[in-house]
Structures are given as C-alpha cells and as structure tokens.
Hints:
Blueprint: E1 2-6, H1 11-20, E2 25-29, H2 44-54, E3 58-61, H3 68-71, H4 75-96, E4 99-105, H5 128-143, E5 146-152, E6 155-156, H6 163-173, E7 178-180, E8 184-185, E9 188-189, H7 190-206, E10 212-215, E11 222-223, H8 224-237, E12 250-252, H9 272-278, H10 285-295
Parallel strand pairs: 1-2, 1-3, 3-4, 4-5, 5-10, 6-9, 7-12
Antiparallel strand pairs: 8-11
Bound molecules: NADPH dihydro-nicotinamide-adenine-dinucleotide phosphate.
NADPH dihydro-nicotinamide-adenine-dinucleotide phosphate binds next to helix 1 and strand 4.
Amino acid sequence: MKILLLGKNGQVGWELQRALAPLGELIALDRNAADGLCGDLTNLAGLAATIQQLKPDVIVNAAAHTAVDKAESELGLANTINALAPEVLAKEAKACGAWLVHYSTDYVFDGSGEQPWQETDATGPLGVYGASKLRGEQLIAQSGCQHMIFRTSWVYGAKGNNFAKTMLRLAKERDSLNVINDQIGAPTGADLLADVIAHAIRFAQHNPQVSGLYHLAAAGETSWFEYARFVLAFAEQAGVVLKVSPDAVNPIPTSQFPTPAKRPHNSRLSMAKLENTFGLTMPHWQMGVVRMLNEIAI
Ligand code: NDP
C-alpha cells in the first residue's frame, strides 16, 4: 500500500508518521516538500500534480489552518487550506481510486445543549475556522471519492506546545490562574488519533462500505478548568513545585475570556458510530493525558 501523508509535522501528522509506517510505503510531506513534490495546501495545482505523479492508494491529510482566532481575519487562507485543498485531494483521490482520510472538528457545531453530538446532527459553526472545516467535509463528500472524515476535539501532542504544558508553566510563574469551566469536551491525544486512523485504513481495505463521516475523541468529558486541575494535581504528586495549587485554580465563564473567534460550549462527540463500525473502544481522556505528562517528563 502506498500512502501519501500531508502535514507530517503537525501534532497529528507527527504521530501519523509513526502509526502509518508499518502499513506500507509512506511518503510524508510538509509544506516545504522537495524532489518536485508539493505538500503546500495553498498550491492547489501543485497538490494535484503530486497526486497524479505518486498515484497513492491512500491520502491522509493532517494539514490544516488550525489557528482558530487568526482564521477570523484570514478567511481566504483558511478557506483555501481547509476547504479548497481537501476538495483537490478528493477529486484526485477519485481519479486515481485512492482513499482520502481527513480530519475535521467539533467546531462545525454551534455548541448548544449537553448531549454528545452525533454525525447526523445539524451543524452550525460559530467562526471562520469551523465554517471552513465544514466546507471541506462537504466538498470531500460531494466528490464521490472513497473517504473517511474524522471529527475530533481538543487535540494535544507530547511534541510542541499544548494546554497542559501551558497550565504547568503558568502555575509555576503566576500567583493565580483563571481557567474556563463552561466549555465541555474530551482532550484527545494525537497518538490516539493516529493509531485509530491506521486501524481504520487497514479495515477499509476489506470493507469499502465504511466510507463516511465519524466522530473520534477520547472517552469521558471534562471542562478546561477540570483538565487544568487534573494536570496540576498530577504534577504536584510528582513533586513539581507550583505557585498555584490545583485547588487554587479559579473557574471562569467563557464570557470573561473574550477571543476573536467564538468557541462552542458543548464539544461532546458521540463515539457510537466509530466504535460500532471499526470494533474499537475509546480509552478515557485521563489515560492519554497521564501518558503525555509522563512523556514530557513531569
Ligand atoms: P497542527 O496545527 O498541529 O498541525 C497542522 C499542520 O498543518 C502543521 O504542520 C502546519 O504546518 C500544516 N499546515 C498549515 N498550513 C499549511 C499549508 N498551507 N500547507 C501545508 N501544511 C500546512 O494541527 P493538529 O495536528 O492539531 O490538527 C490535525 C487535524 O485535526 C486538523 O485537520 C485540525 O483541523 C483537526 N483538529 C484539531 C484540533 C486541535 O485541537 N488541534 C481539534 C479538532 C480538530 P506549519 O507548522 O508549517 O504551519
């Protein structure tokens, strides 16, 4: 199996390089690809030519415009990277008979209610990022290519920056810490996202009927406030000296932390379709976070 991976150095792309390697020949690109290949999602003609040249069996797109607040003032760029580029990938996948595997987001929803979102629920993005990702989903589905789109939430990786690292740094530096307690979701490891996709790709080779849209996140739910407290409690137990202890973290509503882009209050995703289709059981979010905290050597 020949697999083309785009966005190889993002949180998820990095883990995909590991998880996809055993499946076959892996060609992993970032925006600065060499050897006449193009991995830049703003270069639509270059992307198409690269797929025509490589003729992969599977295209995995981990690249995206993920700067949610910046997207509000970069509408054209967000739309190109998150919608028009996936459309090109889909059309080329259709032309060469490849599968397209793509990530989307809980931000396609308006965040209302308290129930986990199903794949069939009405969408209603609150900002440019969510709207561009939703358009990308729609264009892929319209192309008629074999595809798997996985909407996920609250992604963290051990490599690079993440929420837990930021909370640890702030709790060491500051005298107080305010964290939002009215956005609910499930922190989801990039490693889990990569491992599930590797499994799904193998499964899809013999089960073409699985083409479609899935929700994919860790099990359980929490708020950013409880997530921060969990991380700080783990650090304290490990002997890290903090100026702000877990019990001293202040819960605040989203309204007290204004950002250019609105974020959904309810980011719960139902995993029923994913688990039933692929025969998987999602681990609880705390399991992945503890693993990441150990990896970053707290
Ligand atoms: P990252 O921001 O870590 O990685 C995105 C990657 O896309 C980066 O490597 C970035 O490269 C690359 N990229 C950006 N613009 C271009 C471009 N023009 N051409 C090529 N590559 C480009 O994101 P994640 O790994 O966290 O996200 C993976 C997927 O999951 C995305 O589809 C995202 O929308 C989705 N998702 C993410 C969530 C999150 O909390 N992070 C939540 C829900 C869904 P560079 O570093 O050079 O800019």
